[in-house]
Design brief:
This protein is α+β, with helices and mostly antiparallel strands. 22% of the residues lie in helices and 20% in strands.
Length: 563
């Protein structure tokens, strides 16, 4: 079929399409005349950069838009991928793992395995499970030959797509020959990943990850956690700390701090689901398989079953969010204490959306502070965080008076912390977590305290997959300065003040990097206080007449004006 496009005046033939609300869409495809299809990401999902439709197992809604209706309508749900025939009359789609064909959001029932469906594209939306293709595919595979093909394809990907052609000085042809000699000894897909990874390390570059592949399926662990620390006392598990959550936050769940769970620090957990618990037996053995399931704990204020009570909790699969939030809040309180309430504390876990969310939440909520400690230790990277640097660099231009009375005038712009900034770095911050402190220093925002960052500042994009779904990433872009010099990659960003968090100090309850950052912030604040007015100037008197009014015009003047 020949497609002809009339480019002349194309921009004048563009129309805004009604009936399609703002949302996240992808995979636009044409159907019969006047019809297009596209995928709509499920609510609350698919927001990550580069996330594929259905990558989280929920699938997307396949929408059909017809000019005759002037609106988009759901055609089928739980779709991972789809395609339309050349004539637009047939449509094939694959369901996502965990989704059922045509099943709406929130439908009950066990997760369905991925399936293929062939339906009429120009008819009414199909019914549930209509058009399922009963296809059983078999193939003969020689793993040795596939391993060889994957190995050489990975080698070619690096040769053809690395961001610089000199392979960082590695003799890439020699590397293929040297590591290729080990191919006959590869007995497992994991061995192949290891071999490819070692070959890739000769380039000496960050972000050259080797991932995935056709691995044996491993059942997911459903081990439960209670969000608590324990000590052994009298042969029983005693609760030493309960990590509570922000009850309004859907991303955090604290099993022992949930409403109605009457458990306190100092209580003993004596049994789990009726099975008695005594040391040295592990509490985590009894919690195996309890993640996201109601679990009955037998607890008491003393290490004995007499007088005990039972409480029902729902253990969680991962405590990282709870423990990280507890660490962040402890740091915030410490900074507030050490600075006498003058400095804010803002933690940045990464430079992706979670990092921006954390920054906006903690930074703008502490605008009453005179300066800020920005903690980017363990930053996992993501994007170039120029937005954060722009905000940190912001200054104010003037004020608007506050009619509430004895309150401070409003600054213009109103959002910001106007005093000194100190950023804490360490060796576990990288990628976007490398670039952010580099920009922080380059733009002279403030002082860097801590340790040199990881040193991995290249970006990755459009990595082709191997035949079995694995990948070997060839970084596609490196960072260089305005002076034309490659920077940060394999170097990191060194702090202005080098401070090591020695295990002895941390175990003793100290955080030398954070404590030094506060000291420097207070020093900078003392040397250059925030010059912000606390009251407005006297009212203006623009209505007061300082000069007599000019004489009214004469008759001649009026005549002249009228003419």
């Amino acid at each position: 079929m020949t497609v002809q496009i009339d480019f002349d005046g194309l921009q004048q033939r563009i129309l805004a399409v009604p009936g399609v609300p703002e949302h996240q869409y992808s995979e636009l495809k044409a159907g019969v005349a006047g019809t297009v299809y596209f995928l709509e990401a499920a609510e609350g999902r698919g927001g990550g950069r580069g996330a594929a439709p259905g990558a989280d197992g929920a699938g997307s809604t396949l929408q059909r838009y017809r000019l005759s209706d002037r609106r988009a309508a759901s055609f089928v749900t739980a779709v991972a991928a789809y395609d339309v025939s050349a004539d637009g009359h047939k449509l094939v789609y694959r369901t996502a793992g965990g989704g059922g064909a045509g099943r709406g959001r929130g439908a009950a029932g066990p997760p369905a395995a991925p399936s293929l469906f062939l339906v009429d594209a120009d008819r009414q939306p199909p019914q549930v499970a209509q058009g399922r293709l009963n296809i059983q595919l078999r193939m003969y595979l020689d793993p040795k030959e596939e391993f060889k093909q994957i190995f050489y394809e990975g080698w070619r990907n690096q040769r053809d797509y690395l961001y610089v052609p000199n392979m960082h000085g590695a003799d890439w042809s020699k590397m293929k020959e040297m590591y290729g000699q080990l191919l006959p000894h590869v007995k497992h897909r994991a061995d192949l990943n290891y071999l490819i990874d070692m070959m890739g390390s000769e380039i000496a570059i960050g972000h050259s990850y080797v991932r995935g592949g056709d691995m044996p399926a491993i059942p997911a662990s459903r081990d439960g956690l209670l969000g608590a620390d324990f000590t052994i006392d009298s042969g029983r598990y005693k609760i030493a700390r309960i990590y509570d959550n922000e009850s309004w936050n859907p991303d955090l769940s604290a099993p022992l701090a949930a409403p109605g769970v009457e458990v306190s620090v100092g209580d003993y957990i004596l049994a789990v689901n009726g099975e008695e618990l005594k040391a040295p037996d592990s509490i985590y053995r009894l919690l195996s398989g309890t993640s996201n399931r109601q679990t009955v704990l037998t607890v008491n204020s003393r290490p004995a079953l007499d007088g005990s009570r039972q409480v029902t909790v729902v253990p969680i699969a991962n405590e990282q969010g709870l423990r990280t939030r507890a660490w962040v809040e402890a740091n915030r309180r410490l900074v507030d204490k050490l600075s006498g309430g003058q400095l804010a504390y803002v933690y940045l876990p990464n430079t992706g959306q979670p990092g921006y969310t954390s920054f906006n939440r903690y930074y703008f909520a502490q605008q009453d502070k005179l300066g800020a400690i920005i903690d980017e230790r363990f930053n996992g990277g993501g994007s170039a965080a120029d937005y954060i640097i722009d905000v940190l660099q912001r200054n104010f231009d003037g004020y608007f008076n506050n009619v509430a009375g004895d309150r401070y005038p409003f600054t213009s712009p109103s959002a910001g912390i106007w005093g000194p900034k100190v950023m804490i770095t360490n060796e576990m911050a990288g990628s976007g977590g490398d670039l952010m402190p580099w920009m922080f220093r380059y733009r002279k925002v403030g002082l860097l305290v801590g340790k040199r960052t990881w040193g991995g500042l290249v970006h990755t994009a459009d990595t082709p997959l191997f035949v079995d779904g694995g990948s070997m990433i060839a970084p596609r872009g490196g960072f260089f300065t305005r002076e034309g010099k490659w920077a940060v990659e394999n170097e990191g960003v060194a702090p202005d003040i080098d401070i090591e968090n020695w295990p002895k100090d941390v175990i003793a309850g100290h955080d030398p990097q954070l404590e030094r950052a506060v000291q420097e912030g207070l020093r900078m604040l003392k040397e250059k206080p925030v010059n912000r007015l606390a009251s407005e100037p006297p009212p203006p008197t623009w209505g007061e007449r300082k000069h007599p009014m000019p004489a009214p015009p004469t008759t001649d003047d009026r005549t002249h004006i009228q003419q």
